[in-house]
Each structure stands twice: as C-alpha cells, then as structure tokens.
Specification:
The chain is of the alpha/beta class and about 575 residues long. The protein contains 17 helices and 21 strands. The chain is about 45% helix and about 25% strand. The strands form 4 sheets. An 8-stranded mixed beta barrel has the order 12-13-15-16-17-18-19-20, surrounded by 5 helices. β3 and β4 form a beta hairpin. α1 runs antiparallel to α2 and α12 runs parallel beside α13. Bound molecules: ligand C2E and calcium ion (2 copies). One calcium ion (CA) binds next to loops.
C-alpha cells in the first residue's frame, strides 16, 4: 500500500466495513467509497459479477452484475480483472479500468489489486451474513419462506402501513397423503417442491409464500391478485414415475382466505386464514373458504363439543334413530340405517354439528361402538318381542381402519348380544380416498367371513373407482345423494352416470342403495335402472326407535307413497 494513500484507505475501509446482512446495502457503501478514491487511484470504472449456484436457500441461484463506479470523463478499455472462487461453488469477478488517457503504473496496479482482494474478503463476510439470514427465514424442504420469514416480512408491511393491501391465504394440499402412498415418499417430496416453486413463480414484489410444515403453505397476496392466485393453486399436474412409466399426478388444494383489515396484526391475519381453512376441511363443502367471524364461534363450539363429549357419552345422551331402506321392486321395508342424534338438554342435535368435530378429534370411534352396541341391544329386544327385524347398517368412521382390532371388536360386540350377523351391515365412507385401501380390504374380508355385510357410503364423492371396488368384495354401494339432485332434468348426464354405475354394480354381484330419494320421479327412474334399494324422505325420515318399531310391526309396505 502506498504511504500517500494510507489515510484515504483508512477512510475507504471504514466506509465499507459496517455491519449489514444486506448485499444491496454493502453495494451502496462500496459505490460511495470507490468514488472517493477514484481520483487518487485514477479509476475510470469498477464493476463486479457475482454468481452462486442454486441451493435450498436460494432456489434460483445468483448471477448478478453491479457497476460500482463509472467516471464522467469515461475510461480506458484495458480492464484489470480479478477472479475469486467462493466456497459454495460460485465466483466473484472484479473488473477495474483506468480513467480516460491513463495507464496504471506498477504501484497503482498493486493498490488496485489490494482494493479488489479486500472488497472480496469484506464482501464475502456480508455474503455469509446474508446467507445466514436467509437460512433463518427459509424453509429448507421447499425453498419458500418459513414462518419466521413470513412474520418478519408481514411486520415490515405493517410498519409501512401497507399490510391491508394484502390477503392472507392458508393452503393445504388435498390429496397429498394419497399421492405419497401412490408415488412413494421420494417422488412426493419432489412434487411438493415443484408445487412450492409454482407458488413462488406467482408471487411478485412484497408478496410472500411460506411453509409452516407438512403439506401446508401460507401466502400473502395483493388483494387485486387474490382471485387469480386462488385459481392458480389447484389442478396442478405433475409427472411422476410409477413402475417405470411416467404418470400424471394432479395436486389440488384447499384454502382459507382472510381479507386483511387496517388494524390487523400479523397473528390476526394468519390465525383467521387458518380458521377458515379448518372450517373448509371440517365442512368439506368447498375448497376455498373466506373467513367469516362466526367461524370463530364455531371453533369455540367445536372445542366445547370435544370437552363435554366424554361426559355426554357416559350419560348416554346419544340416541339412535333408524331410517328405513325400501326395496324398489316390492316397495317394502328391507333394511334400515342407524343414525345417531345427540339429545342435549331436551334438544336434538344433528350429527352434522358434532360428527365432524369428533372425527377430527378421533373420539368418533368411541361413539361408533356405542351406536353398534345400542343397535345390537335394539335388535335383541325386537327379536325377543317377536318382531321380524331387518338388516341394520351402522356408520363407522374410516379412522377405525388404523385399529388392527377393529373387525374383532365388531364381531365380539355382535357375539355379546347373540345377534345373527346377517342382521348387521357396516357402512364405511369412501370420501377420503383409498389411503387405507389394504386395511379396508382386510376388514371387508374379515366381516364377510363372519357373515356381516359391508357397504361403501357416499359412493361417488371420493376417489373410488369401480375397479378398486370389485377387488374389495363389499356387498353394497350407497350412491351419494348428490347424484339424484338433478335426476329428471332436461340434461340426462346424471341419468347416464347412475344407470351405468347401477349396471356395473349389479354385474359385480353387489347391490345399490340410492340415498336421499325425495321424489317419485327419482324413485321411478331408479327402479327402471334396476337399482334395488332406496332410502330417503320420500319413504321415511330417520325415525326414533319407537316409531321405527311401528314400521316393523306394520305391513312394511310403502306402496301408497309411490304413484
Ligand atoms: P350418511 O351416512 O350419508 O347418512 C345419510 C344422511 O342423509 C342422514 O343425515 C339422513 O338423515 C340424510 N337423509 C336421508 N334421506 C334424505 C333425503 O331424502 N333428503 C335429504 N336431504 N337428506 C336425507 P344425518 O342423520 O344428519 O347424518 C349425517 C351424517 O352423519 C351421516 O351421513 C353419517 O355420515 C354421519 N353419522 C350419523 N350417525 C353416525 C354414527 O353413529 N357414526 C358415524 N361415524 N357417523 C354418523
Ligand atoms: Ca351412512
Ligand atoms: Ca351417505
């Protein structure tokens, strides 16, 4: 270092040696510092190009050039180039040119080299600090922000009073467990990363994507772009390898959305979007749900339900109703479904209000066995009283499939009451897909070998295909009510679908029960399609036990309701 320049250098390093995590801040310090020494060292131009490879913390990598200084008088095109390698496989190239009409002597060249080396060292430290910061706010699995990053980002917008220009979105992938199972964990991870990259490709300046964990994502999106974003998150098709072949995998998402207001805190926004998502999950009604204030009441109600459930079960507050099933060709009672009601302080609470809560908590399993117990007790009493019972189906949550004793517990309950197993039918819903396919198949086999029938409930609302069903050996398919809603319309689409399902099911030697039959038009069409049984308000609503006993005692015919 030349003695003449020593004070100048001291100032130079003083300027660039501050503490920062931001490369952009460092760049502005360097620009200013070089401007100050340019005249003494006859610098006409100084720039650097920084490259870094893609890493989990920097999904796109870096390739960035910055011109720190250009003299107004121009510069000679005889660059001095210095190349440095960085640890993670990237590099830094620094280029200096002398000012117009100047050629650097040996001593000046030594000084330029010294400046370049020190810029590399100090810049490297800033680079490291900025990587550390990025690590602390990045989700390693996908390269999005983590929740820490999202909170920091949002807080900056709150401070600038810009937060209310955005909406908060909480996203959960709908069928990810299923995908995991089908394509395997390694490919599912790749799909999750690709999905994250798709979300990141949407965001513009000051929007943010974060991953709280698992198959969940949070997003902060400008209000004017929110609808476009919500259309962007579902129906995303990826390719995966299955058994050596490329297969298309579609990822769908559920989202809770919260419209951020002026005085909202970051926590308010994230919690509200999460509440909306939970409500969407519980009700299953639609995939995108905007937050409404009564959702919080419902959450509180849900908490109350789970708190008082054990006591209510002990007090036998749950009562079984029976809804008749009718044979469509003979119009006679041929079976029934047990549906549970909660009689709380004299008020009958519908299952829609408590089943989803218990299902989420897992306590539904206790209720299901309680119901089976009551059904067996009723059957035993009917038989003892000389009534001719019909087969009773009871609903079991698919959560039971995780319990390896599920089948044995059903069998031992039925044995305990000495009931002929042919009077019992177990309904399992298919709506959550076939994650538990093998457990389900094993369960169905065990039921069949003991003589208990099985049925697939809400058929047509989930991922089932008749192909899978034919290997399952279930006895009955319960066609979801949604198929019937447009039956008899001008458009015959549903008719074609139902006719084909019924045909195929009949050919596979199973039976179809149509659920939610409300009109004679529906009943007539179903009868024409050779659908064997129907259940719905046209015939009977779910009846309290004593009323259902009257049906068992009577002629069991519904002919007068058909016209
Ligand atoms: P689900 O098994 O699909 O039962 C049929 C539902 O449709 C019943 O509602 C029934 O009242 C209703 N329904 C029957 N016919 C008609 C009709 O013609 N029109 C209309 N609009 N609806 C009709 P419910 O009793 O409110 O039960 C709702 C759901 O709660 C059931 O749906 C079932 O999934 C669940 N559930 C009820 N009891 C139990 C139980 O003990 N265990 C489990 N795991 N789930 C239960
Ligand atoms: Ca059912
Ligand atoms: Ca059903």
């Amino acid at each position: 270092m030349s003695k003449v320049c020593s004070e100048l250098y001291r100032n130079f390093f003083y300027k660039i040696n501050g503490m920062t995590f931001e490369m952009s801040e460092f760049v502005s310090w360097v620009s200013e510092a070089i401007r100050d020494i340019a005249a003494v060292l006859n610098i006409g131009m100084c720039k650097e190009t920084f490259t870094a490879p893609k890493t989990p913390f920097n999904v796109n990598g870096v390739n960035q050039s910055v011109v720190f200084y250009t003299s107004e008088e121009g510069y000679e095109d005889c660059p001095q180039t210095f190349n440095f390698r960085t640890g993670e496989g990237g590099g830094l190239e620094m280029v200096f040119c002398p000012k117009k009409s100047h050629i650097w002597n040996e001593e000046e060249l030594e000084d330029i080299k010294f400046i370049a080396e020190n810029l590399f060292i100090i810049g490297g430290r800033v680079q490291m600090l900025s990587v550390m910061k990025r690590v602390s706010i990045t989700d390693i699995g996908t390269g999005t922000s983590n929740m820490n990053g999202l909170f920091m980002h949002c807080q900056q917008l709150v401070n600038k009073k810009l937060f209310q220009n955005y909406d908060a979105v909480f996203i959960n992938l709908k069928n990810f467990k299923f995908i995991n199972r089908i394509v395997g964990e390694r490919q599912a991870d790749i799909i999750l990363k690709s999905y994250a990259r798709r979300l990141l490709s949407f965001v513009e300046r000051d929007e943010c994507i974060a991953r709280p964990g698992g198959d969940n994502f949070c997003a902060l999106i400008e209000k004017k772009r929110i609808n476009e974003f919500l259309g962007f998150i579902s129906n995303v098709v990826f390719e995966a390898e299955l058994g050596g072949e490329k297969q298309k995998v579609t990822v769908n998402a559920r989202a809770g959305v919260y419209e951020i207001k002026e005085d909202d805190t970051v926590n308010d926004a994230i919690n509200a979007s999460s509440t909306a998502l939970n409500t969407a999950k519980i009700t299953g009604r639609c995939d995108v749900l905007w937050f409404e204030s009564d959702m919080l009441d419902r959450t509180i109600k849900a908490n109350t339900i789970s708190n008082i459930f054990p006591e209510a079960l002990k007090n036998e507050e749950f009562v079984v109703y029976y809804q008749p099933k009718v044979s469509l060709d003979s119009n006679t009672l041929c079976g029934c479904e047990a549906l549970t009601r909660w009689v709380k302080d004299g008020i009958v609470v519908s299952p829609a209000d408590f089943i989803p809560v218990l299902e989420r908590e897992g306590t539904i399993c206790r209720l299901d066995f309680y119901t089976l117990d009551k059904v067996c007790a009723d059957l035993k009493r009917w038989i003892e009283n000389g009534l001719q019972p019909v087969r009773v189906s009871t609903n079991f949550s698919k959560l039971h499939l995780h319990n390896s004793d599920f089948a044995d517990e059903i069998i031992s309950t039925v044995k305990k009451y000495g009931i002929d197993p042919s009077y019992i039918e177990v309904e399992l819903t298919e709506s959550s897909g076939y994650e538990d396919y093998e457990a389900l198949a094993e369960f169905v086999r065990k039921m069949k070998s003991y003589g208990i029938s099985t049925s697939i409930d809400d058929f047509g609302t989930g991922y089932s295909s008749l192909n899978l069903l034919k290997d399952l050996d279930v006895d009955i398919i319960k066609l979801d009510k949604s198929f019937l809603d447009n039956l008899g319309d001008e458009k015959k689409t549903d008719e074609v679908v139902i006719r084909n399902i019924v045909n195929m099911v009949n050919e596979l030697d199973m039976q179809v029960v149509a659920e939610g039959v409300e009109t004679n038009v529906q009943a007539d069409l179903l009868e024409n399609f050779k659908c064997s049984m129907a259940q719905g308000y046209l015939f009977d609503k779910p009846l309290p036990c004593s009323e259902f006993e009257e049906r068992l005692k009577g002629s069991k015919t519904y002919i007068n309701l058909r016209n």
